[in-house]
Amino acid sequence: MIKIENVHKSYGDLRILKGINLQVEKGEVVSIIGPSGSGKSTLLQCINGLEGISQGQIEVDGVDVFAGSTDMNALRTRVGMVFQQYNVFPHLSVLGNAALALRVVKKMKKRVAYELAYEQLKRVGLSDKAKMSPLQLSGGQQQRLAIARALAMQPTYMLFDEVTAALDPQLVREVLDTLLMLSSEGMTMVLVTHEIAFAREASNRVAFFDGGKIAEIGPARQVIDHPTNERTQQFLSHQIH
Description:
The protein is of the alpha/beta class and 241 residues long. It has nine helices and ten strands. It has a six-stranded mixed sheet, with helices on both faces. A four-stranded antiparallel sheet has the order 2-1-4-5, with helices on one face. α6 (169-184) links the parallel β7 and β8 (188-192). α3 packs across α4 (110-123), α3 (94-104) runs parallel beside α5 (139-151) and α5 runs parallel beside α6. The longest helix is centred in the last third of the chain and has 16 residues, at 169-184. It is globular, with a radius of gyration of 18 Å. The two termini are 36 Å apart.
């Protein structure tokens, strides 16, 4: 599991996270919703060790993310992360992009890396684009390529940070369908999203962040359909309207 205990994060006097407690069990999908600046994306980056914490502890399968002895490269092969920006490499083919981390981080031979990467492209519906430049892909396809690149490392957990935010509305569904496919396969996922209907449909639990704290957390349909916290009610009312 991912275990987050009393996590605080500050930049100087600016407090971003204020005592976050959260456990994510294997096979669970947890969506994090809330207003911009509430600490959602920062928490994901802390889980993956991209940002340090000021206080508290984060464990992944019992390994303390911020212990001095922790191998961060090994950790990040188990905890994949996909960002809002696709970050494709235009000088590489679609297949080359999907295989890049396997070759650089895992030091795999090109043939083996390409075989594994191709399987992930098939998984996200991009196998027919393997030889193309990523610049020939739509935004939704580029985001699916970024997901395939993360999946190629065979992670146990996946973190998704607003992966549909930069997409035109007509392209959002194809990415959400990819996430639903991963959920149906039992992938453990933590998603920061503004796609409220998707969070309701795909998540086991939803956490509402407000001012660096978890203001409300519970089963997805309970939190979204019948929120008890006033700030959650206000936020969801605005989103739905």
